[in-house]
Amino acid sequence: MGKWRHGVILDAGSSGTRIHIYRWLNSDIARKKASETQLQSLPVLETDKKWIKKIHPGISTFGNNPNDVGPDHLEELFKHALRYIDPEDVPNTPLFLLATAGMRILPPVKQKAVLEQVCDFARKTTKFQLPDCGLHIQVIPGETEGLYGWIAANYLLGGFDKPKDHDHGKGHHTYGFLDMGGASAQIAFAPNATEAEKHANDLTLLRLRTVDGEPMEYKVFVTTWLGFGVNQARQRYVKALLQAMPDTREVPDPCLPNGLTLTTDGKPIETGLHEDGGHKPYLFGTGEFSHCIDSTYPLLEKDRPCQDKPCLINGQHVPAIDFDVNHFVGVSEYWHTTHEVFEMAHKDKAYDFKTYQRRAQEFCSQSWEDIQKGVEKKIWGKKVDETTALEVCFKASWLINMLHDGIGVPRVGIEDMPGSHNATKAMLKSTKDKGFLDPFQAVNKVGGVEVSWTLGKMVLYASSEVPPPSTEALAVGFGSNKPGIPEDFQHAGGSYKSYLSTGDDDWHDHLFSENPRRIPGFLIFVLIIFVIGFILCGRERRKTMRHKVLRMCGRGGRYGSLRSRRRGFPGKLFGLGTSPSYERVLEDGESTADFELGSVDSSSDNDHSDSSDGSRIGRTSGWATPQIKAGLVDPGTPTSWRKVPD
Where is this region: Disordered (predicted)? Predict the structure, then answer.
């Protein structure tokens, strides 16, 4: 087992699939190099922007043609991964494909067909570690996606490793997590002690493991709101507009810039041309942002019955949020909608409701003609095109309603908030070790690393590979908030893999490794020793040895041939026959960074990948190389690290 461990995860979303590669030190090496503080922290993961690649469309589009998902979609992503992972490391590199919103809407039969083809193609064309497709390749629910996001955010911000530096009050040191995509929105946070006790049955128990093997447990509330992502919220909004004015062809829309006309499914209409000659209704922008906020408020559906109080929106239960200690970070649309247009020149500025609403009002009150000119001149940056510009007013109003009237985030800049700060770039930089102090802040990257739920999944996996201090230690993963291992517990899937070293002091071991790059060197070494010994033994002995060799090779008759077999030549010299095998001579010790043990027995008594010890493939070998051939590229030193600099 080498110095570095790798993990590959494919985020299979609705619009495309993005592959992420992560790496971390083998736990034996990490412990040897760690300080006391680092021993009490989670494993350090590294990534690099070169290791990430996204292709379109999503795998859900293969629902009717599942056999095409491998050659037409996955092959390109697998080739990308194999550019950055050495062939010797591939058999010990876990592969995950976790699908989200797009696959969730497929019928179960089509879901199953696509996932089976993904597993089959990966196993046939690569040697990635894929012991259990049910665990490694699946459609994950929104709650799981939210939990992984919560792990990633706290991991990057330092909420796990430095609790004293992130003391938000009342002994609370973790951050809440908000995510919004096109179809759904998620929330994940650890309630304060009072709410955690009151709503214990609603919480998820999460267990991680630090570098020294000690458990790290958290009780987290996670829920998802289906239909509350920006795209589906927009669809519900347009439907409500049409129902309110059933006999009107030109339907006023305050959430569109003044003068912009769209079809009901969001396609621009040329000025003066009505869809289908005026027989179908269309939307006409009036650019009234305050009216837009009022019009999108009913989409929160706060009037739905609450079966388990308290509830926030859509009648779904959420424990009361204490914003004195629960500081939230928002990703995806929370970031894009607050920064792509209105905060382009203020990327490190904390969210300020008063300032944000004013800037949205200024933008959305412009005529569509003026906005188009601004887009052409790149006033709002290269990423803002006409599509972004025509959508952003609705998105901004929906975000404001979700944050403040839905989730209840205090309106910084209007409502007084004890301990809150309108953070500037300088303030954020000076308070990173103390944690973000506002009740909400939109983020995209922390320390150069994207806050992605895929990172959270891999952190969980990496921590599950750390050996526990005893056999009685509980497994890494998550499930119902019950003692021990509940029935619905989801194991992270990793297991301890020892690091076998070959330094200068054990050169004799790595000469006999099965690594193909070492065998020629070994043969040359043996040949040199033989020649030197032959020369030094003297003329008479050389003559005698020559005759013996000729007889043993068969030139001395049948007797010589049989005697050579009885004596075991050449078996003893090369470790064959009755001599000891050198297949696994490296039991202890450490290898240099460029040496891998040729064959590692990674079999386990446990046949189930979701066991407390995780999953392993039966046997891997450095001889095995992926069937998809790709040239190796030295990844170099990663530039993206997971921690905020101290």
Answer: 596-646
